[in-house]
Model the fold of this input.
Amino acid sequence: MNANSNTHSGNPFTAFRRTVGGLGDAVRDWWAGAPGWARWIVYGLLILLAIIAPSDFIGSFMSPETHWPSLLFSPIGTYVLLAVGLNVVVGQAGLLDLGFVAFYAIGAYTMAVFGTKYGWNFWGVLVVGIFMAAVSGVVLGSPTLRLRGDYLAIVTLGFGEIVRITAQNTDYIGGARGITNIPHPPPLFGVEFALDPLPYYYLLVAAIVLVVIFAKRLERSRVGRAWEAIREDEDAAELMGVPTFKFKLLAFFIGAMIGGLTGVIWASKVIAIQPPNFPFILSATILAAVVLGGSGNLPGVMFGAFLIAWLPERFRGFADYRILIFGAALVLMMALRPEGLLPARRRRSVTGNGGEPDDARPGGAKPASTEADGMAEEVAR
Amino acid sequence: MLNDFLNQVGPSTVGGLASGAIYALIALGYTMVYGVLRLINFAHSEIFMIGSFAALFAILHMGITGPLSGFALAGTLLVLMLVAMAASGGAAVLLEQVAYRPLRRRNASRLAALISAIGASIFLQEFFALIVIPKLFDRPSQGRLQVPVPRLLERESLLTIGNVEIRNDHVIILVSAVIMMILLDVFVNRTRIGRGIRATSQDPETATLMGVNIDKIIRTTFLVGGAMAGVAALLYAMEFENLRYNVGFLLGVKAFTAAVLGGIGNLRGALLGGLALGLIENWGAIFFGSEWKDVIAFSVLVLVLLFRPTGILGESLQRARA
Done:
């Protein structure tokens, strides 16, 4: 299906593109048609993989130069969770958010302020942090979600910067020095949370599993269908009776909650946070993870986040040059496979008029795909 | 408070207009590319950065030692401007070839183009921090630090009204920006290629049917937008006398804000939006302190979009957004 849209065979990358593209599509198609038990086995294997991931054996290959469990917690784990959250906003509802880091920052600062100033327990702050991030999502969303596409992008970018600069200029929350001595979570099931990254990693894995189940259920619900309708054509959705504003706000709300959750967990591990921990480039990186993996498709998004977090760390041998290579890789990747490594099945474009439907919708026109999707919904019930 | 404001409003206005003129010149690149391709050219801030370093390179190699004046100054600025325009314009065309054209050929979504642009932007910043600045500017392992620019002209007060000094550097910035704007306006509204640009931004398919060579138009748009960023880059280097590998980021965001403020896709809107943004953030800084400047700029953007989502002058010139 990918080959159809590719008429420039003179391109030296064509063979590579077909291989990678074919592989990605094959995986996705198998997944769409796989029976329920096969899916459960895959889920089980993935969780098992996440549990044994910090072992030295895997670490010796994945990251010979850096402490692997630390890497698994941050950036890998945090990027995956952030990407799952951003995917709700960008991938499902089709709202371009360039300031996602703001919610992460709000979660982290809530943890820091309540932990250091009021001596709150991690679990209490977790609830408050998620709530604060969600509220800020609504505060940002309610005036701006009437805007479309690029306006929304620039306003969210501005919001991210406003949050960072405000943190920098407000002495109550430490100003440019940030906040130090953030408390660790209390022991859970006899496991101490201290400097060792492992317990935090498992906490993050648990959070990711819960959030993914939540996001997946949402995707299959009325809400998910409304988001999809909005993403594909907002006017049509409105005409069909979908209260688009309400659902867009909900997407912001849920995305912000997940961002806040990540921030709280992260801050409880790192002891000290500063405003420069939340730069614009982090928002851009998470967005890149979502798009690289295949916006709208959860496994793809998580895979993309993993790659984006892991590759620069793996190639620390190139030391300074890794970010340079990362930038070039993004350009190359988009040129070779703009729809992402594992794209969602029924997608056209994210921000409206982005290309012709037939070309940009991989495999969407086949009747078989609707059948497969129907089946997928059966399985989910 | 009010007294402070009254004392400072004059100087702030002049400074605001000068930085606003620089925003406006950068905003032109965003607005033109957006008009033709409906795309945020995210790497435009790096086009600006490249122009500023090209100007610095030329300054260092022209053997300019002290501040200039009179005809020597005018001639030097003109040459430097051409260098910066050529560097920025060339870089913009190259960027289009590498980062956008392959995606356009494949009808990729605009989100993919945005990611490609972000990738190009990261690449260019790192390329300068790691290779260009250490090697070409002879600053080994200091690629991420500020690079000073030799002083080009001595700042002199040309005229004083009340407590407001009108300085020569501010006049140069404003006059060059306005001249560039007029030239661009004539180019877009009066020439054949300009007509092609307008046609393409109104309706690319029909423009193609009418014999407009879209690829050529897009290339020209990037070239011209890049050249305007080059002018801004020289003026910036002259005024602030410090460059950095990431100098473009904040300016780029502000310039895009200016473009949106004036109505994106609208050339005159970019001028108005840039000047308005420069004024608002400088006036606001009197009340809240200059560390809140950026917050003020973004808050104004949010407010304007709430009450007038298409910007001050509207998206006009082109069709309304689908």
In short: Residues 11-153+162-307 of chain B form a domain with the ABC transporter involved in vitamin B12 uptake, BtuC fold (CATH 1.10.3470). Confidence is low (pLDDT under 50) at residues 317-322 of chain B.
